Structures are given as structure tokens and as C-alpha cells.
Amino acid sequence: MAVKTKVMVNLKDSEALVKELFNRSFSRKLAETIITEIKDFTSKGLSPVEGQGRFDAYALQRDNDKRKYPYPHTNSGKNIRPVNLRLSGELMEALSFTEVKDGVLIGILPQAKDEIKKRAEAHNEGTLENRNVPQRRFIPTKRDEKFVVSIERKIKALFEMQVKEIIKKMNNKGG
Amino acid sequence: MEVKKTNVNSKNIWSEIEFLPPDIEADESTLNKIKTQVAEYLLEQTLLNVGEAKSPVSGESFPGLSKEYKKFKISESRPGVANLEFTGDMLDDLSYELTETGVRIGFFGTKEAEKADGHNNFSGQSELPKRRFLPEKGQNYKLEIEKQISRIITDNLGSQITISDSTLEDVGTKAEFWEVMTDIFPSFTRAQIVGAVSRSFGLTNKLAKFDLLKYLE
Asked: Any residues with CB less than 8 A from the CB of B160 and at least 6 apart, and which?
């Protein structure tokens, strides 16, 4: 199953000029910024999802058992800390986006490999019972779930830049 | 923004940061929202900076690991950098409390406070290289962090304001626009008004509806 979040804006009552805010180039910039932030946060063992905090330890540490994950990958450079959801890098590289009518869809999308989608779901939802994988949310998928404050601030900063760009264009056209 | 005081003992180490303006006009819910967002932001920025072996405190930097400790860390499958993470227990316990005028950020009722003081040396007794991630009295967070905190305050104050259509429908000139806006946002500078509106979908839409966005500069 794909693991994705929709970053959307309510365009009801918007005038045409405001619709210009959410053009293709802006949507792309927004999505790329969010993906960069997700990668930055997870690389440091932090969830980019509000209310989640730092990721739980890997099984080796959690269960105090040297034979558990990330062993035997520790022999080829995989670190026990930080908990960064990265082994081959495939999961993070699969993060992508697509534009939809009222925003962008960001995450591990339906076109990703099945194995990657399963891994993404295991991390985002947790499968402690079946595979001893604690929940480590890296994409907000639940209703009203948000990104952390730092990412929300980056989104706001992008909107601010875009609005100022629109105003500049308006005033240049007007002379 | 000011680090008002700090505290350190065996189970606690924290910095108390005051950032709410004394004359702030906001309801309880908005004040709590501001404080919580700032606290969460400071926590995130602290962990992000530390994760890169950097300090979030202005003027501070993390000395590198000693050769021996770096070798040891790598042998234990940890990165050989001063990211203050071996078991992860200390950073897991980094937390905050809300105060009347701001937040306290640090460690509360946990044995990890001793480890944290080892790095921050509020007690003056640590023999470890100083790797400060909590600001002392008189210190500041990095400029960009403090800038964002100002914006969090401004944006939340702005969001509690409702602008009626009747307020805007008769505005015809730039001068009239700014007269109305400074009335609506009495405690904001013009730059703060521009920022708060540009970062708000609702306010931007509202101004665009009356073709007033062009005056927002």
C-alpha cells in the first residue's frame, strides 16, 4: 500500500490571482522542500511528523541482543545510532510527489516497488507483533496529522516568497 | 528573546527562555499555542543541530571527538562525530515546560541531566569538552532560530484576527489600505504585517478578494 500525504490548500473563494500562487513551479518547489526536510529529519533519527519525537531504538539495542537488527549489517557500515531508516537508501530515494487538483501528494506513491511500499508501511504504522518493527512515522497520513513545526515554518516561508513574487509582478504590470 | 535563568542539579538541567512581549494581547489559547509551537521548534532545532555535531547556541561550536573516543565510537557502530548520541538516552529525554512568559528547555527529573551537564557545564564542574546545546544566561540561540520564533509569535497573533468584508470593501488607495491594516494589527510593524499576511492563506485570500494584495509591500 502506498504511504502518502496530501499537502493541500483550500482554494475556495480564491481569486484568479491567488490561484496563481499554486502554479506548477510552486507545487514542485513545495514538494521538493518537504521531501528534503523529511530526509533531513529521518537522517538524524527524528520523526518529521508532529507529536512523534525521536525514533525508537533498533531491536539490537531495544532487546539488548547483539544478534538482532541492524546486525549483521553493522559489519558493512550500518550504524546502531542514529535510527535513520536507512540501509540501502532505497526507501528515502523512493520519496516522490505528484500534483493533484488542490495540492500535492507526497510520499511513497503507488508506482513505487512493492517491497518499498511494504517497508514504508511497516515503519509508518509499526509491525511490532509480526516483524518487531516499532512505529516510526515519517509521513503524516492520518486526518489532521501535520508535519513538525520546523517543516511547517519552511512551508510558510515558501508561501511568503510566492506571495511577494505575485505582488511584485502585479505592481510591475500596473507600472 | 532572553535566557532569563538556568538551573542544574543531579536530576535537572534547563534554560528558561522568555520570549513573549510584555504587552502582548492574546487570549489564553493563543498564548499556549505560541508557547507550545516555540517549544517544539526549539526542541527540533536543538536535535537537528546536535545531529550535525553543531550547537544551536549562537557563538558556540562542538569540538571534535578525541582520536581514541572516535575510534571507540566507530568500533561500536556509531558515527565518529560529536553528535552526543551513543545510547540515545540523553537526547530522548530532552524536553520542555511552558512558563508564564516562555518556556524552559532541558531535562526534568531524569538522571540524563548529569550527562547533559557534562556537555553544557552549567555546574562548572564538568571536565568534558564543552558542547553546549542549551543556552546559558546571557546567550542567544542562532539568529535564524530567533527570527523564526518572532515569526511564530507574529503569525499566531495574526491568526486570531478576523477581517470583515465591510472593513475592506471601501478601501481604494494604498494610504487607505495601510490605515486600515495598522488599525487591524495595532501592535505590528509594517514589515510584520506584510510577513504575517503573506504567510497566511486566509489573509492573502481575503485581500485578493478585494484586489488589495497589490498594496502589501
From this structure: B26, B27, B30
| Closest C-alpha to A92, from A35, A27, A46, A34 | A35
CB contact under 8 A, A79 and B201: no
B44, A150: Cβ pair inside 8 Å?
yes
Whether A164 has a pLDDT exceeding 80, the answer reads yes
Cell of B97: 515546560
- Could you say which residues from 149 to 188 on chain B have a Cβ atom under 8 Å away from some Cβ of chain A? 151-152, 155
Q: Does the interface predicted TM-score (ipTM) exceed 0.90?
A: yes
Weakest mean pLDDT among A61-65, A101-105, B213-217: A101-105
- The dihedral through the CA atoms of B171, B173, B176, B181 has a sign that is positive
For B197, the grid coordinates are: 499576511
Chain-chain contact of A160 with B92 (C-beta, under 8 angstroms): no
Q: Do A167 and B213 count as a contact with CB atoms less than 8 A apart?
A: yes
Residue A92: enclosing H or E segment and its boundaries? helix A90-93
Q: Is the minimum CB–CB distance between B87 and chain A shorter than 8 Å?
A: yes
Measure the CA angle with vertex B113, ends B98 and A42; round to 5°. 75
Do A62 and A69 form a contact (C-beta atoms < 8 A)? Answer: no
**What is residue A175's predicted lDDT score, i.e. its pLDDT?**
44
Decide: helix, strand or coil at residue B162: coil
Give the C-alpha separation, A76 to B162, whole Å: 58
Helix (H, G, I), strand (E, B) or coil at B6: strand
pTM: 0.93
